[in-house]
Each structure stands twice: as C-alpha cells, then as structure tokens.
User: Which sequence fits this backbone?
C-alpha cells in the first residue's frame, strides 16, 4: 500500500469543492466515448425532483402543522389561529356597518361534491368580501432561516433579505391563488331580532344548532375574524427553500382545523368550543404546487463580456447546433444548494389543475436569458408532472 | 396612448440618476446610481473578481418592508446580469442603485409591485447609463394585464390590475432575449404566449413569428419602448455635448 | 409595533381563542388534569437522532415521548385543548470556524449558544425576537457545555450551537390559573432536552469532548389525592409539569456519567415547606440533585446509542470516500 506512488488525482469530493463548475459540467456532459448518460452530480436526471416526504399534524400547539422534507431541505410549518374582533378594527364600523346587512350568505360546504360546486362559487364570490383577507391582514406568513439551517445564516439576526423575500412570495401566492376562503375565517353573530319569545327561542337555537338556518344568516353580523399566523421554520437548508416552504404551508393549511366560534353576548367576546367534532377544516381553493428550476451554463464566463452575448436570433441558430452535439445549457429541476451556487438564472412555476386542465398560477424567470417561450413550455410540462407527485404525497399524509 | 417620459441626471450629487414617469400606470420614479463605490463594512461578502450590485427601493409613503426586499431581488437579478462587473475599476466594488417611488398608487400589503416594476427597471437602467456603468446590453420592460375575457391591456392602472385575471411583467434585452418574466394570477400557456408576443411588440416594435418572419406591428402601441429609452439617452448626450457640436 | 422585516398581522393585534369550557367554574375543570401514569423514577422515552441536517457540521433532533394523556388525546381526540405537550427540538452545530475579523484573539474555542422557540412552540404564541427566558436558556446551555468541550484544541475558532424548539413543555396545566405555579417549570425540561441534544450534535460534529454530557430533571411535587387534599411531597424524575398540581422545587443538571461530574445545575423553587417537619432524607437538596443525576443517566444511555450511530455513519462515509 505504502509503495504506491502519490497519486495526482483528487478524490471526487475534493474536486467538487475546488472546481465546482467543472465538476458539475463533467457530470452533465460526459465524454462521448465513455457512453455515460448525462446526469447531475447528485445522481438525478435534469428534470428529476428530490424525494419528497410530508407529515402533518404532529405539533401539539398548532391548529395545523406540517413537516415537508424535499431531499435535505426541511421546512416545518405551524398554523396558529387567533381572533380579531371587528370592534378592534379601526375602520370596520365605517366601512361595513352599512353594507353588512345586504346579502351575506353563509355557505355551508357539506360534502364531497364540493368539486362541482367550486366553479359556481368562484363566480358568485363577491370580490369585496374576498379582499377582507388582504385588507385586514388575516394571513400572516413568516419564514425563518435563522434556525442554524445552514452556515451562512446567523441565528438571532433579523431575517435576511432571502427570508424576507421568501415570506413575501408566500404571502403573495396566498393572495393571488386565493387559497384560503374569507368565509372560513368569519365568525358570525345572529342578533336576536323581534320580540321577547322569539328572542328566547332564537338564543336557545343558536346554542344548540351548529348550522343555523341559511335564511337566518342573511342579516347576521360578522363579529370577528380568524387570523392565521403561518410560521415556517426552515430547519435544514440544502437549496430550493421555496418549494419546500410552500409545500409545507399547503400541507399545514390542509391540516388546519378551526374550532367552532360564536359571539357570547354575556361576556361580550368570542368564545370557542373545544369539541373536536365541531371544528371545521379549511376548505381550500385548489392545490397549487410550486416547482423551481435553475439554469446551469457550460461557459461560466458567458454573459459578462459584451462581445460574447449573441443576438436572440443567433442564439436560435446555436441551439440548432445543440441538437447535433454539444449542449451548452441544462435546466435543472429542484436545484440543491450546490447547484444553486453555480447558476444565476432561476425559474419558478406554480401550477394547479382544475378538472384535469392545467392552470398556471405564477411563472417567474429571472437572472439570465436562457429561458424563453419554448423552454418555459417545457418547464410547465415538468411542473404538471410534479403536481401529480406532490398531490399524491399530500393526500397520503 | 401617452408614452412614458424620462429625464437623465436630475440629481447633481449622485454619479448617475434618472427620473421616469409612466402616465398609464401613474408611476413616478426617481433613481440614483453610485458606482463604483467602496463597500467598507462588507469586505468578507464581496466577490473577488466581480462587482457587487445593491438595489434599494423606497416606497413613497410607508417605510420599506418585506415586499420591497422581494422587488429589490428581482431588479438585482435583471441588472446584475447586465452590468459588466469585471471591467477595470469595478471588481470588489459596489454598484448601488436607489429607487424612490415619488408618486403613484400605494402598493398594498403582499402585493408584488408588478404594475410599478417596468418603471422601476427603466429608471434603474437610465440611471446606470447616466452613471456610465458598463453594460453588456440594455433592455426594456412592460406590464400587461389579461382580463377574464382574455383581453390584453398594456400598462394597466392599479384598478385595472386589481380586476385582471392575470398580470405579466416581461423584460426584453436590446438583443431580443427574454430577460425577465413575472406572471401571477390564473392563466394558461397559450395566453402567456400571446402576452409574450404583444410585450415583444411593445418593447421592440416588431414581433418575430415562429418562421422567423419579422412583421411590423400596428402603431397602436405607439413608439416602441426600446426607442424611447434610446432617445432619452440620445437627447441627453446631445445636450451634454452641445458645446462641442456647436463648435464643430 | 410593526416589524419592517417581517409580515405583520392586524395592527390592532389579535387575541388567542378562548374556549367555552375554560370559562366554566373551576370545579368543572379540575377533574381534567392529566395524571402521571409512570412510576416516580420512570423516565419518558427519548427519540434522538443525529445527522438529519447535512448542511451543518453536526446536528441532532430530539423528541420526548408524549405522556399518557397526550398520547390518548392524539389517538382519539376529544378536545381541541391539548392536555400536555412533548418537547421537540432541533439542534445544529456550525464550526469550528474562524472567528470573524472583528473578534478579538481567543486561545480557546469560542462557544456561542442560541436557543429560540418557534412561534408555535408554546401554548401562548411566542414572538420572533428572543425574549428573556430564551436568552436565559442559552446562557444555561453554554455553561453546561463549556465544561465539556476541550476548548484549547481550537484557538481562534468559534462554534455556533443553535437550537430551535418546535414544541416546548408546558409550564403548568392549562386549567390552572396562570399564577398558581410560580415558576416556569417547563423551562427545566427544555434545558435538559437542549443539553442532551446539543451533546449529541457536538459529538456528531466530531468536536473533542471530555464525556457525553446529558441533561436530567427531577422535582419535588405534592399532588392532589382523590379526596382533593394535597398529599405529602414526593420526589419524581422527569416530571411533566402539566401532570402536577404543585411543584415545590425542581432541579435540572448537566451530568457527565463517566467522570461523575456536574457541569451545570439549576435549582429552582422553595422546598423548605416540604423538608420542614419531615426528617425524610428524600426531600433535601441532595436527594433532588441525585434524582436529576439519575434522570441524566437515563438520558445518557439514549445519547450514547445515538452517538454510536453517528460514528458508524461517519466511518461508513470515510470508507466510502476512500473506495471512490
């Protein structure tokens, strides 16, 4: 053993650290003679996502919680619901007292055939009603990276720019997908109307009956809102935090149960029932799934010298050449930390499927010029497949 | 359609600055660029052979918060790739871009600034040009909204944007690449392709068909944005060098 | 107060949900207190696993077995109010790494500990910024570990230990009035868990230590008997504060079994009442500390197992690396 000459080759792990770009490139474009398939350094195919695992409902003090692990990136999400009485909202009496008696309906979603109702409901939904979520800050997502999840993040420091923009992206996506229904967050009060006896009876009825007559709801009054504090702790960070965080939010919201709450006239406060059977699950709109991508470029220097950047037209011609042999760019799905460090261009596609039809909810690309119409179309297709995967995972947990 | 107006170097003390108004979205942005500058407190974070780009967005009425961090990230992503940070004098130094929203609609909580984003990007670009920061190419950007009927509106006002089904911001480089795409709201890919075509027409005045044909588009969109940016810079150069031109 | 770096809730603030059952008369609730079903010297099971966070040099995840009442509430939920809770925490170790340029020279390894509750960890929502109790835990943890690490082997280096508590122990039973227990007893259990997890994470990061330090908790409690009278005080190991009407005093230790040394001791409460009038040797300070040490010994067996697993993984990695 000792007699072998000191070898000049480096073990792969050290080569990966010293020459990360060349290392990944060598994996993706193996010499034609070696007959090896083009594969990423982590052993995945370019459009392959990491194994995803999800678990819900394991945290005691939350209304809904989830742990999602995408490869080595782990996100823990806990949803806590608290009460916002309308008396506390400064502008409430001004903006709503006049309109509150008009036509508020209470939708009681009873059943599994909700899917069918969904479309109608979407159309009937009054946009003003929905804007409550946005106007009153009823959804409060915050993502924390200062958990020691990766060496770069100092624990105890205020949220980094990355954590802030991830929090913002989650809030923005919650708003644009209108995932949570404002109706689920309202606490109604049925003021006893008309004379003495009626009043007695009414009160009694309200105490016993969960689903008060729909007709009676018409002149009900919103007394409070549930505010959902959605906190995401990235416990372990190995690239692509957004997909994991969003999946955790989605799983936690699917798991969230709000207790039955009513306005207690005697105590002048909102009181909840702790009976499990009376608690309601949130009825979410759809199941938007996020898929992120990174573009790895063979020539790391391309792009910072003016002379090198080809025209879009020329680019197309070069691409023709690609098919014959040398590939210059790889779109890597679900990049890990190592790959993220080596690529500048990012894309994120959020898709949902409504009755088999794919709907894009969000599509972003930034940081480069490799992705255009054709490539994005490919990413949407990959995201559709990913949607199926994540759906199965979330339904099983 | 009233096109945007812009002026270069309204601020005296900054290395470069620009102001930009877009009447249709009602935005009014003032931007400044300082480059190259030393970033003392961050010696460990600086890249050894590249410039560090920093973007700050200041909203008009409220203090900057989480949403601004996100927009700053987007703008940094676009201009960071265009700035030639390895040119002499830029390595290990900073390019600091500050964009103040002077007028226009307030951005509500959780909103992604999409209606303001093209104006912010243009201001950043003009300010960079004004500061003579070396760039590999220029770009132009636009925002389009698609309503429930599938009608595309260019540079919608805040109300239109709120009512729209989906909202798209696209930026194209002067060489025709798609630099940035930010789309939100429900849409399908065909819609996006229409939006892309329209945006390309707004930015460059031409749309390139699948077969490579270059077709001139109706002048409904007025002068292409690319030209507006170019003219603003040309005018400024003209003014700056008027003494030389007159003398000649 | 708005925090510009985070997303804020409604400006007027929100209130935690009030359950109708907790508004009813006190007599109604007092029957619902979870009962300890373990023997006085029986510990809860521990789940401890290392290496779950690959980006850190060392990491550990620790979970306490839910007590009988919580386990029952999980399997067949009756009420939305959880009877008690079980500690869950993740610990990461980053380092040894060079000290920041601004730091002054240190001949030893500089230890930084940071304990933070997740906002959803406790019955009351926690803030995003560390509060006094979290800083307190950080300091206790640092003293516990400083005596264990062979610090002079890494001059001019720093070691960051970060603990994120995903679920904390209760300080008292939820039905009790907030002031009926005068101290945050749950923090003791949290500290013991932090010590054990940090010890595993440090070993996982292959930092030289004198021994595997383990945390343990014991308390002197006086429980209610069925007749509603308080029974005579008893020494219990690994107490779940939710299960006891009144905890007279409690002690958490960080203990190194093979050297028989204690690096940190935290004793709280007034047990003069308990020892007064009885000559029972089992209720003195000594007994309390011995109890905590015994609890720590119990945790140590789990710890040793987890560290062995970590070492085997490391050995496998080395072999694999050499083969390739």
Assistant:
């Amino acid at each position: 053993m000792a007699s072998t000459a000191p070898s000049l080759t480096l073990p792969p792990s050290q080569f990966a650290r010293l020459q990360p770009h060349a290392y990944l490139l060598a994996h993706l474009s193996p010499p034609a003679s070696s007959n090896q398939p083009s594969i990423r350094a982590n052993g995945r195919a370019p459009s392959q996502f990491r194994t995803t695992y999800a678990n819900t409902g394991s945290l005691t003090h939350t209304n809904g919680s989830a742990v999602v692990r995408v490869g080595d990136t782990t996100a823990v999400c806990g949803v806590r619901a608290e009460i916002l009485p309308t008396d506390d909202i400064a502008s409430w009496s001004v903006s709503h007292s006049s309109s509150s008696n008009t036509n508020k309906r209470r939708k009681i979603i009873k059943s599994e055939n909700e899917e069918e109702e969904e479309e109608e409901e979407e159309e009937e939904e009054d946009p003003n009603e929905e804007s409550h979520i946005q106007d009153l800050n009823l959804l409060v997502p915050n993502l924390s990276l200062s958990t020691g999840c990766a060496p770069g993040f100092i624990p105890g420091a205020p949220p980094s720019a990355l954590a802030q923009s991830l929090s913002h992206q989650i809030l923005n996506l919650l708003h644009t997908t209108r995932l949570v229904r404002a109706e689920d967050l309202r606490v109604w009060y049925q003021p006893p109307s008309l004379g003495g006896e009626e009043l007695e009876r009414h009160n009694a009825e309200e105490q016993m009956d969960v689903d008060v007559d729909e007709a009676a709801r018409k002149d009900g009054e919103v007394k409070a809102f549930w505010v959902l504090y959605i906190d995401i702790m990235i416990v372990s960070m190995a690239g692509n935090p957004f997909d994991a965080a969003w999946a955790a939010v989605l799983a936690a919201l699917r798991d969230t149960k709000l207790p039955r709450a009513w306005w207690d006239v005697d105590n002048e406060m909102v009181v909840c029932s702790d009976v499990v059977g009376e608690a309601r699950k949130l009825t979410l709109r759809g199941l938007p799934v996020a898929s992120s991508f990174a573009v790895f470029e063979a020539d790391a220097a391309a792009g910072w010298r003016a002379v090198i950047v080809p025209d879009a037209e020329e680019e197309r011609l070069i691409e023709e050449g690609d098919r014959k042999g040398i590939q210059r760019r790889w779109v890597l799905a679900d990049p890990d930390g190592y790959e993220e460090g080596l690529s500048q261009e990012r894309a994120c596609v959020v898709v949902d499927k409504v009755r088999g039809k794919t709907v894009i909810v969000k599509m972003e690309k930034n940081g480069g010029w490799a992705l255009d119409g054709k490539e994005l179309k490919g990413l949407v297709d990959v995201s559709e497949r990913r949607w199926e995967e994540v759906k199965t995972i979330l339904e099983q947990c | 359609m009233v096109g945007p107006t812009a002026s270069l170097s309204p601020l005296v003390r900054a290395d470069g600055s620009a102001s930009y108004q877009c009447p249709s979205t009602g935005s009014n942005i003032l931007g400044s660029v300082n480059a190259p500058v030393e970033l003392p407190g961050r010696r460990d974070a600086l890249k050894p052979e590249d410039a560090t780009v920093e973007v700050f967005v200041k909203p008009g009425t409220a203090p900057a918060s989480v949403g601004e961090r996100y927009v700053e990230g987007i703008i940094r992503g676009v201009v960071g790739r265009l700035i030639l940070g390895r040119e002499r004098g830029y390595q290990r130094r900073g390019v600091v871009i500050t964009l103040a929203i002077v007028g226009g609609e307030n951005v509500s909580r959780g909103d992604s600034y999409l209606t303001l984003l093209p104006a912010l990007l243009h201001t950043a670009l003009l300010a960079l040009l004004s500061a003579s920061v070396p760039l590999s190419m220029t770009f132009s950007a636009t925002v389009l909204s698609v309503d429930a009927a599938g009608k595309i509106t260019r540079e919608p006002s805040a109300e239109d944007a709120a009512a729209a089904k989906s909202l798209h911001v696209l930026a194209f480089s002067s060489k025709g690449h798609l630099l940035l795409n930010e789309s939100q709201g429900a849409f399908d890919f065909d819609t996006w392709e229409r939006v892309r075509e329209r945006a390309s027409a707004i930015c460059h005045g031409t749309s390139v068909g699948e077969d490579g044909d270059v077709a001139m588009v109706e002048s409904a969109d007025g002068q292409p944005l690319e030209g507006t940016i170019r003219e603003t810079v040309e005018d400024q150069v003209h003014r700056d060098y008027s003494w030389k031109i007159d003398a000649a | 107060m708005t925090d510009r770096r985070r997303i804020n809730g409604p400006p007027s603030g929100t209130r935690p949900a009030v359950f109708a059952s907790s508004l009813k008369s006190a007599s109604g609730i007092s029957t619902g207190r979870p009962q300890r079903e373990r023997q006085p010297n029986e510990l809860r099971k521990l789940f401890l696993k290392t290496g779950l966070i690959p980006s850190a040099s060392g990491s550990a995840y620790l979970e306490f077995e839910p007590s009988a009442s919580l386990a029952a509430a999980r399997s067949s939920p009756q009420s939305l109010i959880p009877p008690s809770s079980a500690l869950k925490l993740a610990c990461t170790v980053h380092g040894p790494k060079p000290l920041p340029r601004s730091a002054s020279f240190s001949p030893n390894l500089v230890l930084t500990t940071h304990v933070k509750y997740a906002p959803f960890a406790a019955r009351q929502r926690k803030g995003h910024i560390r509060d006094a109790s979290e800083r307190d835990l950080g300091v206790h943890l640092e003293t516990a570990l400083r005596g264990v690490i062979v610090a002079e082997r890494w001059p001019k280096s720093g070691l960051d230990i970060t603990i994120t508590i995903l679920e904390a122990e209760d300080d008292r039973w939820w039905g009790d009035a907030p002031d009926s227990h005068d101290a945050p007893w749950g923090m003791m259990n949290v500290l013991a868990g932090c010590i054990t997890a940090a010890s595993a994470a440090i070993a996982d990061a292959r930092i030289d230590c004198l021994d595997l330090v383990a945390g343990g908790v014991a308390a002197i409690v006086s429980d209610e008997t069925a007749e509603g009278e308080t029974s005579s005080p008893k020494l219990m190991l690994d107490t779940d504060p939710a299960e006891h009407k009144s905890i007279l005093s409690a002690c958490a230790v960080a203990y190194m079994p093979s050297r028989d040394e204690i690096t940190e001791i935290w004793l709280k409460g007034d047990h003069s009442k308990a020892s007064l009038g009885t000559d029972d040797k089992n209720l003195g300070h000594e007994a309390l500390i011995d109890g905590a040490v015994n609890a720590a010994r119990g945790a140590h067996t789990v710890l040793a197992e987890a560290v062995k697993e970590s070492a085997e993984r490391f050995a496998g990695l080395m072999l694999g690396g050499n083969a390739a």
Q: What stands out?
A: Chain B touches chain C at residues 43-44, 63-66, 109-110 (CB under 8 Å). Residues 5-247 of chain B form a domain with the Ribosomal Protein S5; domain 2 fold (CATH 3.30.230.70). Chain B has one domain: 5-247. Confidence is low (pLDDT under 50) at residues 209-219 of chain B.
